[in-house]
Amino acid sequence: EADIYQTPRYLxxxxxxxxxxxxxxxxxxxxxxxxxxxxxxxxxxxHYSYGVNSTxxxxxxxxxTVSRIRTEHFPLTLESARPSHTSQYLCASMEFTGEKLFFxxxxxxxxx
Amino acid sequence: xxxIEQNSEALNIQEGKTATLTCNYTNYSPAYLQWYRQDPxxxxxxxxxxRENEKEKRKERLKVTFDTTLKQSLFHITASQPADSATYLCxxxxxxxxxxxxxxxxxxxxx
Lengths: 112, 111
Fold this sequence. Notes:
Largest sheet of chain B: 6 strands, mixed
Order of helices and strands of chain A: EEEEEEEEEEE
Strand content of chain B: over 45%
Largest sheet of chain A: 7 strands, mixed
Oligomer: heterodimer
Structural class of chain A: mainly beta
Radius of gyration of chain B: 13 Å
Helix content of chain B: under 10%
Distance between the termini of chain A: 34 Å
Helix content of chain A: under 10%
C-alpha cells in the first residue's frame, strides 16, 4: 500500500478563510502532484513538483499555491477560500523514473 | 483539443460475467496508458500499465488491450464480483511529468 497521507479528510470552511491542505509521503518519491476532482469528472492537474524547491502550475488554472521545502511534504494553500473552490483535492507521488502514481485518500473541501 | 473519452454511463453487469470498459483518446501519442480503480471518496489506485509497443497485458482477472492506430484501450474484468464495483479511470502519460485522466466509467456488479 502507498504511504501517502492527506489531512484533513474533510474540511468545511467559510468564505475568505485561509486554508492549507497537507500532503506527506514516506516513500522518498521525488515527484508530487495535486489534482482537483469534482463528482463524476476527470482529475485535473493543478500543481506538480519534480523535487525540493521545484514547483510548477498544472493544466487547470488554480488560485492555490504550493511549496516543496522537504521531499516528503507538499502542502497546498488557498489564501482566501471561495465557494468555487469546493471540490475534492487529491495528492499523489511518483518515483523520479517511475510510471505509476500513488494517491492519498483526498481532502473533500466545502466552502460556504 | 486533447481529450480522453470513457463511457459516462454506468455499466451494470451480473456477477460472473466479463466487464469491458473503453477508453478512447485524441491528439495524444502516449508512451504508455494506465488504468486505475477509484472507490467513492478515495484516491485512485493503480491497476495496470500497457506500453505503446504492447498489444495486451494481463494481471489475474484483468486484461488490457492497447490499439495505437484506433487510439483505444479496452479494459476487461473476467469473472466479475460485486467487490469489483467501482469507477475505473484511464490515464495517459503525455511526456514530461504529467499524467492525464479520463472521467472514468462506473461499474456495478450485481450478485
